[in-house]
Design a protein that fits this description.
The chain is mostly helical. It has a single domain (about 1-270), classed as Rhopdopsin 7-helix transmembrane proteins, CATH 1.20.1070. The chain is built from 9 helices and 3 strands, in the order H-E-H-H-E-H-H-H-E-H-H-H. Strands 2-1-3 form a 3-stranded mixed sheet. Helix 2 (about 20-55) runs antiparallel to helix 3 (about 60-90), helix 3 (about 60-90) runs antiparallel to helix 4 (about 95-130) and helix 3 runs parallel beside helix 6. The two termini are about 20 Å apart. It is found in: Cell membrane. Keywords: Cell membrane, G-protein coupled receptor, Membrane, Olfaction, Receptor, Sensory transduction, Transducer, Transmembrane, Transmembrane helix.
Length: about 270
Amino acid sequence: MEANMTLVLEIFLTGLTDGRELQEGLQVPLFLVFLVIYLTTMVGNLGLIFLIWKDPHIHTPMYSFLRSLAFADACSSSSVTPKILTNFLSKDHISFIECITQFYIFAVSATTENFLLVVMAYDCYAAICNPLLYPLVMSNRLCTCLISASYAIGFLHPIIHIGLLLRLTFCRSNIIHHCFCEILPLFTISCTDPSINALVLFISASFIQAFTFITIIVSYTFVLFATLKKKSEKGTSKAFSTCSAHLLYVFLFYGTLFFMYVRPGSGPDQY
């Protein structure tokens, strides 16, 4: 019981600071590297949001989706990186409540990004495959509804995992070898069987990632065929430039999520 109370009050994160020699020798360089990455991410995302807000000529559905995606990405970075920076310079522990909060904000942001990427793929499909009907198909009202639905799913989905996590009893250790409070490492320090938690996480993550990824690929397949049919070389070039950056972001984002939650060794039988 005493070990359980210690863990509930405080968790030590040793993902990037494991070993005193490594910590003392590299803590300042690592701090600077992560600080530069974080500041670059925030300046890029917040700058994009400001520029879209400032120019009324681009208050269109396409840029509204981009602004929402930038905000979700900024929230995702802010939920994790500031605590990592703090760990480099001072304490490498976090309270259990902070840990749950950090995971929730990160999960909300990641889930929201999943569905915003789907919406952006559909928007690209509508703009390129049906350009004449685009103003009718993608109205401002539909745009607002799609963004709201993405955030609603993002806020609701992690609540399931938080509820299941709170049923666990933690008594093995208060150390997790991870750089932030991600849910899978928490399963390893539970003395209650977390197999149900892991199963629900694996199924939900697999479904969300597979459904959204396949939807995006199907949308861009139609976009590709529509682009190849264009007789204008300028139109083809413009279509590819519009969607290529989005596709690159999609593959980087989903590659990371699949590695974290759906890769071999992350299934429920591992806990």
